[in-house]
Write a sequence for this structure.
């Protein structure tokens, strides 16, 4: 497909750019990005819609490397938190820790989803993809052990401020980018975000530990299991960045 010059760039990542065009958002992937991964992302989003976790719908276009999406008229939670930290007045949160409490709510919203009838991969089945045999044999037994111990739910597995949108109509947060979503023990969602924030800033990590990680006690997740989950997510994350 061709844009007519009125498109506006509203997002940019390592593999794709997002444009606002004629009332929709268009995710334009690099030509080198595998088309089967794009098909998988669309399938993931259909399951998310089925579960009632995000109203954004994906639509095919005449280009397999472009997805048309419903547009969320809002801002990323990251901008709101950063503005708050800079001393600017924001309506959505009272202070920076309040932004982290919103992150906590997002986790709980996803984890309470009824996974019966949903077609998401299990984390234990996909976590070893692309890893060395040594690393795969190291992490899969950990995932299976914790799964047997705590049970499983739907996990987003990439939950952070860039993937939480706050609509301007104040209709509550909207979680986006479900490519990593898997059926897994909830602890891996918390661990994944811990690993991501550790890369970003020590201050953010400290706030996460103070405002979000206490939720692990409610879930009766032990410190050793959390540490093991962090190690698993660190290995998976290193593969993604390689």
């Amino acid at each position: 497909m061709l844009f007519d010059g009125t498109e506006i760039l509203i997002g940019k990542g390592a593999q794709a750019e997002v444009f606002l065009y004629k009332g929709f958002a268009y995710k334009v992937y690099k030509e080198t990005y595998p088309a089967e991964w794009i098909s998988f992302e669309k399938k993931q989003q259909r399951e998310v819609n089925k579960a009632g976790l995000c109203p954004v719908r994906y639509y095919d276009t005449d280009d397999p490397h472009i997805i048309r999406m419903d547009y969320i008229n809002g801002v990323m939670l990251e901008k709101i938190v950063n503005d708050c930290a800079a001393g600017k007045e924001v309506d959505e949160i009272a202070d920076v820790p309040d932004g982290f409490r919103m992150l906590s709510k997002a986790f709980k919203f996803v984890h309470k989803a009824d996974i019966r009838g949903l077609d998401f991969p299990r984390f234990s089945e996909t976590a070893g993809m692309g890893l060395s045999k040594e690393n795969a044999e190291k992490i899969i037994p950990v995932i299976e052990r914790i799964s047997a111990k705590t049970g499983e739910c739907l996990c987003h597995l990439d939950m952070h401020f860039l993937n939480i949108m706050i609509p301007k109509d104040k209709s509550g947060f909207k979680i986006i980018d479900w490519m990593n979503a898997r059926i897994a023990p909830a602890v891996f969602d918390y661990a994944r975000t811990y690993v991501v924030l550790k890369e970003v800033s020590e201050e953010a990590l400290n706030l996460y530990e103070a405002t979000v990680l206490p939720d692990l006690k409610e879930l009766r997740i032990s410190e050793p299991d959390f540490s093991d989950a962090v190690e698993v997510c660190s290995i998976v994350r290193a593969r993604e960045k390689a």
In short: Residues 18 and 27 are 4 Å apart (CA to CA). The chain is about 45% helix and 15% strand. The chain has two domains: 8-71, 75-241.
